[in-house]
Amino acid sequence: MKKKIRILSLDGGGIRGIITCVILKYIEEELQKIDHPNARIGDYFDLVAGTSTGGLIASILLCPGNDGKAKFSVQEALDLYSKNGETIFSVSFWEHMFNIFGLFNEKISRRNLEKQLEQVFGTLQLKDLVKPSLITAYDIFDRRAKFFTSHEAKASLENFYVKDVCRATSAAPTYFEPAKIKSLYGQEFTLIDGGVFANNPSLCAFTEARKIRFSEILNDPEKPDHPNINDLILVSIGTGEVLKSYTFEKFENAGKLKWIGPLIDILLSANAETVDYHLGKMFDSLGKRNRQNYYRLVPNLGKASPDMDNSGEKNIYELIQAGLAFVDKNRDLLADIAKKLVRNK
């Protein structure tokens, strides 16, 4: 029998990506126990997809080391988030005074983000990531979805610097200004956060996987080409469930300004829920064994703030606690995922 294609999909959510890292860290530690003491989770998936903060995490996990395998552990990714988050999301006193709530300009300066991306990725190119990847953005000039795929970046037309890919996928409207980037071929794009259409990129990842000849790209004849849904193990991780209620009385006469925040919240969560619904139904149509190969992991935020830019020390602590609480309640499930990843490597 062919091995399964292992897909990891990571939602957007700003600083809440810390929760994602905590969950992945536990899975990686299980891999180290049952397979190899220096296991890196980037080596145990055949395709990694990410939107916004998920795209940043995916890029970190797929950075190549000198041996051609994944360079960074999840702990190192978590350290980057917890240590640099406050720098990336900081807003100076004067920026706050003249740009209250981001009404007149982007809420956060892009400079800190771009500086951090330069330090982490330097001149690393998309084509050099260790595994196939799919990272989302949206082209506001040509009005179409833009997918950055490392396996197609071998052609110069589709190759980019990873730091530019991460800048594009994280350009959340009202938080950061759009990203104007160029491919290494010289083509220019004006892009915003892929969360506007795929905050949960799992369905995009499945569609992308259908195009790929994995046996050739991974140099493994036991991996199926153009896999169907029954050929997959799909692990999809959210950044914390946000279920804020909005009453009719509060919004019956609401104007554009009052709707901006709630509308963004609703669109992001509704997108993720719809994708989960479709994939759940697709896997439910399979036999008993294969239908258990879809994992949608969505932690409760607990005491953590739902805001994507709350990088205060207390909130970072609460985000870590939310991730740990999810791990504690789902140890058997996460161990099962690790075992399946090893069996199909």
From TrEMBL:
Alphabetical GO biological process terms: lipid catabolic process
A Pfam family the protein falls into: Patatin
Active site residues according to the UniProt entry: 52, 193
Domain of life from the UniProt record: Bacteria
UniProt entry keywords in alphabetical sequence: Hydrolase, Lipid degradation, Lipid metabolism
Positions occupied by motif DGA/G: 193-195
Motif GXGXXG, chain ranges: 12-17
GO function term, MF aspect, one: monoacylglycerol lipase activity
UniProt-listed InterPro entries: Acyl_Trfase/lysoPLipase, PNPLA_dom
Residue span(s) of domain PNPLA: 8-206
Chain ranges for the short sequence motif GXSXG as given in the UniProt record: 50-54
Cross-referenced PANTHER family: XYLOSE ISOMERASE (PTHR32176)
Family membership: Belongs to the patatin family.
Protein name, entry field: Patatin
Species of the source: Flavobacterium silvaticum
Source lineage: Bacteria, Pseudomonadati, Bacteroidota, Flavobacteriia, Flavobacteriales
